[in-house]
Amino acid sequence: MTSLLSEIGLNIQEAHAFSTADGFSLDVFVVDGWANEEIELLRNALEKEILKAKFLEDLADSKQCKRENT
């Protein structure tokens, strides 16, 4: 997550991580560096980077699976 924030130009000023007894976790970041006041643009930029990272992770997993099965 920290690299995703960096990719879109945000600087992490503070970070906190919390976990619950039922297995959930919450990461909270205080950032600066977002030039736009529009939160929706930030949300879209984060979603784009998360989807890109997820795609690359799935692709790597798929390649690893193929190697193990050959």
Automatic annotation (TrEMBL):
Is Hydrolase among this UniProt entry's keywords?
A: yes
- Does the keyword field hold Signal? no
Q: Which residues form the ACT domain?
A: 1-61
Keywords of the record: Hydrolase
Name of the protein in its database record: ACT domain-containing protein
For this protein, the record's InterPro entries field holds:
ACT-like_dom_sf (IPR045865), ACT_dom (IPR002912), UTase/UR (IPR010043)
Highest taxon in the source lineage: Eukaryota
What GO molecular function terms would the record report? hydrolase activity
Q: Which organism is it from?
A: Ilex paraguariensis
